[in-house]
Amino acid sequence: MSRTLISKLPDVGTTIFTVMSQLANDTGAINLAQGFPSFEPPTALTDRISYHLNHGANQYAPMAGIPALRAAIAEKTLRLQGRAVDMDSEITVCTGATEGLFSAIQAVVHRGDEVIIIDPAYDSYEPAITLAGGITRHVPLLIADNGHDFGMDWQRLSDTISDKTRLIVTNFPHNPTGAILTADDLDQLAEIVRDTNCLLLSDEVYEHIVFDGEQHRSFSSHEELWERSLVVASFGKTFNATGWKLGYCVAPAALSVEFRKVHQFTTFSVSTPMQHGVADFLASDPDFYAKLPAFYQQKRDHFCSLLEESGFRFKPARSTFFQIVDYGDVSQENDFALAKRWTREIGVASIPLSVFSSTPFTGTRLRFCFAKADATLEDAARRLCRL
Ligand SMILES: Cc1ncc(COP(=O)(O)O)c(C=O)c1O
Questions:
Q1: Among the atoms of ligand 1, which is closest to the Cα of residue 175?
Q2: Contact assessment for residue 175 and residue 35, using Cβ atoms and an 8 Å cutoff
Q3: Nearest alpha-carbon partner for 313 in 187, 75, 84, 146
Q4: Fewer CB within 10 Å: C terminus or N terminus of the chain?
């Protein structure tokens, strides 16, 4: 090679999810690290996908997604968030939320634009911003004095916005802390961005996993926020099918036009039989989502009750399928080193919180995924309680 290869992402290595899952595989540890359920998707859904695989739905789907699936997404958005969206111009089916987030960022961020992300942040945001030539600004979540309640620091967000800020990326229900936003939070955000040029990218992949009777409030539900929002979601979490990589982006027509310009050259269209299968399933069981909170709340409660015997401090998660614990009474070791050591020595893999954050946010915290069979959670908790 006559020219040196200059990396466009010099600081990016292998994601922590791959690192910890690999370590769990190599050591035979219980993998409570990567966020995937150990349950199968509903049979009624996989049956419909098999049907379409065997009945000719095997060529390119339309670029924006098949009409039946976009109609199901529009129906749900109206029913759950009160937002009437036009399925032809405001909904795009994409290859998992990851592609939706990437395409959204490439579509609206220009070289030199600033983009604010909230720490701890899902790890795909910043590389996508960097590839678009944007500059990432980090705003940490607020941690209440008890060390267990997490929420938006609206003042800090407001102070971080400048005339260069093009986009704010949020993720509520929040991975990894389980924080959620209230109606009042959405009003505060609307007030902060009202006189700015900021667009909003709302990652809502855990929209259906919210506990204790609380409600997820999508940016699509808010009159003012909606006008400047791209809302990205995923069927992976909803249907216990993270390997299918099926998601969507809902955004006002003007934003969707730009989103689609990138989407059509990132992937063009998404697996056809999958889309037909999901559309059929949602037509037969449109309220499937309503069953998820109770199912995962039972998992959360079971895992938390097992951890009562441990030396960890924690408060049950308000959403998602992750539980944060503070291990400070058990060890003061660095979280990454400890997560690796406990994977090898105790046989339970977790995710260290510091990897989600470039601001000094995290202290002695680990994230455990409780989307697992009860027996797996019991085995893991037994090992953790011995510490
Ligand atoms: C916050 C968040 N956003 C996006 C994704 C990616 O979703 P998908 O698998 O649909 O690409 C995940 C997956 O874990 C996530 O936790």
A1: 1
A2: yes
A3: 146
A4: N
